[in-house]
Fold this sequence. Notes:
2 copies of one chain form a homodimer.
Chain A: H1 14-34, H2 41-48, H3 52-58, H4 62-85, H5 91-108, H6 111-122, H7 124-147, H8 156-176, H9 183-196
Amino acid sequence: MTASLAEPNLPKTKRGQQTRAxxxxxxxxxxxxxxxxxxxxxxxxxxxxxxxxxxYIYFESKEQVxxxxxxxxxxxxxxxxxxxxxxxxxxxxxxxxxxxxxxxFVRGRPSLYSIVEEARFVDLEAYRAYFGAFAQAYxxxxxxxxxxxxxxxxxxxxxxxxxxxxxxxLGERFALWDPDSDLEGIVDDVLDMIEHGLAP
Amino acid sequence: MTASLAEPNLPKTKRGQQTRAxxxxxxxxxxxxxxxxxxxxxxxxxxxxxxxxxxYIYFESKEQVxxxxxxxxxxxxxxxxxxxxxxxxxxxxxxxxxxxxxxxFVRGRPSLYSIVEEARFVDLEAYRAYFGAFAQAYxxxxxxxxxxxxxxxxxxxxxxxxxxxxxxxLGERFALWDPDSDLEGIVDDVLDMIEHGLAP
Lengths: 200, 200
């Protein structure tokens, strides 16, 4: 991971931090709705209710605000999942709680997929950093659970990517495209497979 | 699925079919390398070695050739997987053969992801049709195996999307981004999880 993908240098004052956050919020709405190419800095500052010159105090370009937005959405999603699994007593309980929280998060925030998936084309390094950070945290959790004997032994890096891919596609199919689907029921079905496998 | 996503009306003559296929091949290379927005019909016809007017005998627009390309790549991928699993004797053997064939296919054809994932933004209906057709065929195979007692009972539609999501993300991470990774070893690890689950 390069220096440019590290934690951003946040403004020193609270007011500065609020303005930066307001720009990222506006960028999420504008780029989520219009796509990266069609979105403009003028549109983002109008949405944020700030002067266009103010944008450049915090970001250099549309590319940079997009990259920060992708990484910020990753941090937000990981925090949300970490909170959801914090009260669980085993890895399999955590898988259930984490998947349900993720699917609910996706349903409530449809711009997540629009923006992160567009990063594949706009900023591949940010896209890979987004999923790489997820997979790394996921594999660490699987390692910790394995050390406690809570999981069948196996390669945790590969499992992390496999489980993440499952969540990603289920989120798209059921949380995003099918607003009436029963997410708890889906999680029950998926967890049965994750826990017991498909062998009869 | 709308009429426009049905099997295309293929040209009647063999020569016409070859020209249409040459345009799709060229579109795959040009759009795969440059992206949909930057690619032009002039660039595609130059790559195909045909006059620009010839393009319009077969396709109405860049949007239409892109849609046909996405659906054609879906048919090709499904045919490739169907061939790979045709000699297997159980669903779990078929899962192994199918996943390995898919990962090898992705490694040999990096434009698959560039094009299909860009469809999410260029032609969401084609993107959904691509994965919908996959999931439908997958669920039918799981149903048939369940009827023979080869699988633990469960919701085959949800399982199909979950397994597809796993393959998609593993393909991106290991086949596409990591050209030296050992795909057979990865399939062994994933199949252990698919077969037996994560419970100790």
